[in-house]
Amino acid sequence: MNKFVLPAIAIAAALGAGGWWYSSQSAPAATETASSAASPIQAQELDFPLGNPDATVTVVEYSSFTCPHCATFHQGPYEQLKAEFIDTGRIQYIKREVYFDRYGLWAGMVARCGGGTRYHGIVEMIYEQQREWAGANDPAQVAENLRRLGRQAGMNDAELNACLEDADTALALTEFYQANAEADNIRATPSFIINGQPYQNMPYDEFARVLNEKLGG
Q1: Is 87 inside any structural domain?
Q2: What is the pTM of this model?
Q3: Percentage helix, strand, coil, to 5, in the chain?
Q4: Which domain holds residue 157?
Q5: Is 38 a residue whose pLDDT tops 80?
Q6: Is 49 domain-assigned?
Q7: Beta strand 92-97 with 197-200: parallel, antiparallel or unpaired?
């Protein structure tokens, strides 16, 4: 389980995600704060819930795109949860990103590049190919690896570059992550908030038991 101390990423680093690795643009000054940037993104545009919005149980997942334990969860227990609880409308499920590093932030920006309809599909690609895209030592190569994933999802380089150069989105995502993680006292990934109660990573059988208890089953 990956652990971190908030804030995990500086605002200046978030703004630096705006394409510095492949363009000559300069990042805004490090003294600019999240509150001073007029981001057009609203909170409701940053969450892409799955399942039943009217369900009596809501699960909020906190995970990082660069966390190996999160990738393992998504390729195992999450698939079972999706089949048994999300797709069947028994619960509502919300994924929220944690940014340990700039690579995770860049991945989050690429995941949102195709909008809400493509988000979850791109998320699965990011986790499935985590070792390949995140394993490079060169930031420029990591950026190109993420663009490759975006192209696999049907986007072109112009669209991807525009997304990765969007400093307002980088800032909004960082602010959104920090506010939620602090409010829910998130200190490790993956972590979960189930109807307001915190839980650490757990195998599917235990997760299903908790959900069934809350569902009254």
Answers
A1: yes
A2: 0.83
A3: 50, 10, 40
A4: 7-18+39-215
A5: no
A6: yes
A7: unpaired
